[in-house]
Amino acid sequence: MALIVMALSCLATLAHAASFSHTDRNRDGVVSFDEAEETFPRLNLVLIKKADRNGNGVIDKTEMPALNSINRFQNER
């Protein structure tokens, strides 16, 4: 059972990394508002800023799970 949980955790991590890679279109290592808007058209600047936990104006890999969660929440509404 523990092995299954570990495998699912690894897959979830890979999914976030793939999402970041897809969203970071210019491959500069961060996701700008424009890049996030292209991938997540239902999100606005206010929502994207909520994912920007360090306030530097872009989304980095550590903040991408928060952006994905906000997007999922918006899509469920």
Model description:
It is a single chain. The protein is 64% helix and 0% strand. It is mainly α and 77 residues long. α3 (45-51) crosses α4 (64-76). It starts with a helix and ends with a helix.
End-to-end distance: 34 Å
Mean pLDDT: 83
Overall geometric form:
globular
How many distinct helices? 4
Please report which band the strand proportion falls in: under 5%, 5-15%, 15-25%, 25-35%, 35-45% or over 45%. Answer: under 5%
Largest sheet: none
Oligomer category: single chain
Radius of gyration: 13 Å
Question: Roughly what percent helix?
Answer: 55-70%
In short, what is this structure?
The protein is an all-alpha fold and 77 residues long. It is built from 4 helices and no strands.
Task: Give the key terms.
single chain; 77 residues; mainly alpha; 4 helices
Topology readout:
Layout: H1 2-23, H2 33-39, H3 45-51, H4 64-76
